[in-house]
Amino acid sequence: MAESSVPGWEQYTSRNQITRSAASKIGHPDAAALTHLSRALYIPRHDGKTAHLDVHDMTTQYTAATGTLPIGCTQYAVAVGVMPKPRGDGTDDIHVSYNVDFNGLGDGEEVVGSVKFRAPSSSAEIELAISTTEDEAAVLTSGSPGATSISISTTYPISASSTRTGIVKHPYFTFKVPDGDNDPTTFQWQIHPSKHGRLRYTLVRNPVSQQEGSSSADIQAVYYHIGLDDSFSLPHSEGMLLLPPSQSSAGESIVVASTLGMLWRLRELHRGKGKVRKAGKTSANKFTRLFRKE
């Protein structure tokens, strides 16, 4: 792979000697089990003040950049880091898969986002209401009539890590998706710092205990942070969301919305150094929920 000309990444490349180190080609222990996640969505750099962002389908560019590199190895991190990102002016032929808009970003207002899937044959749309309680990160609601709200709960089943920026907590995010007449299916965003590093979250279906572990069939998605950072303790977010290519638009929209809700909470923990920032009261006259009928 050619040396990077992007500021910062060439130093990272040199420091880790990616062209000479055998260890640089060793990815996460389960890298080979993630081959079914062949769809790559790019979530651009954003923070708590970002009112709009577009989520792009960069599967072609991602595949060309990473090739057969195992997820999590040094070469993989550099390849994703220097991969050309969408220009946003429509001239690079990179398809926009989701439009995301946030309302209520002013102090004391309720933050509610709209996650819209862009496809002629689908109108999937998810409302993403950001929570301010310790045990809930967000609430998802589909735009269809009679839809059930999905709460994303926050727990801390593993110990915090000590990094160069301080102590970093590693929350898990759990939610249940209705499944017709059957019992709802449980999904959980997990982080495993000792196995996968501190820059990856894995979405697992029907999570089991830490001792039992999860099979590759249970892994529904992976979010990988892009940057020269050592944890998610950051004021911004940017990364690749890896998904199976055959997922329904409704199911994928829930995963995308849950990712954005997770990232919001991780940024809030950074702002509060481990505590969730408290929001003020919402003014009903200033803000209307996106899917509320007049």
Describe the protein in words.
The strands form two sheets. A twelve-stranded antiparallel barrel has the order 1-2-3-4-5-6-7-10-11-12-13-14. It is built from five helices and 14 strands. With 294 residues, it is α+β, with helices and mostly antiparallel strands. α1 (9-16) packs antiparallel against α3. Residues 1-5, 13-23 and 279-294 have low confidence and may be disordered. It has a domain at 35-63 and 95-270.
Features:
12-stranded antiparallel β-barrel, alpha+beta, disordered C terminus, single chain, 18% helix, two-stranded antiparallel sheet, 5 helices, 294 residues, disordered N terminus
Give the strand tally: 14
Distance between the termini: 56 Å
Gyration radius (Cα, Å) is 19 Å
**How is the biggest beta sheet arranged?**
12 strands, antiparallel, barrel
